[in-house]
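pinned: reference chain
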Amino acid sequence: MHFFDSLQLIATGYITKKKDLYGKDVHFTFRSKSDYFDPFRLILDQYFKITLYPKISHNQLNENFTQLTEVHKQAEDKKAKVIVKIPLDMGLLKIKRLVIKEQKRTTSLYMAFLEEKLLFSLHKKYDYGNELQEVLNIIDPLNTKSNLLNNQLENNNSFVFENSKNEMCFIEKLVHTHVFYVSDSTKFEKVCEELKTYPIQSMSIKE
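pinned: its structure tokens
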């Protein structure tokens, strides 16, 4: 670690670095290089997955989405492991990665803000998929699932929900249960369209 980095870490608890990522200047504020992540891949992986599945809608989702985002309250007094800032045409995109305790289990929570307003969150539960059905029951507590949802339950472990507020939620079992929440589908799509213009390829950002 360079001397200046050591002073930064002692004074603030963080180190700030600017990285050229796919031709874009990206600012990382972190405690350890092991906390690095690729924000482009994080976002676009979710974006492309969402396009693969039909969206499920029903009237209860406005309230039920709120229940799924209760974990955001835990993040209010937590210090982020890493903060990433990306200047975009739509404004500054800031992504925080936090470690959250849930039922004595450590989980990862990514929260992204566009011009300081929450755009999306990704909660990786590290539960080996044990909570997938519980999360789906929060979405539809009365078990009034549509035929579409029932068919998807039989064939896969990935589900996309949307409501009348332009919110969206992508739930999947990828070894563990992942809950990806989008507060504004229109703005999220515009952000993704801009990120898609960069030549994303295999790259290490830990150097």
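why pinned: Residues 3-195 form one domain. Confidence is low (pLDDT under 50) at residues 3-7, 203-207.
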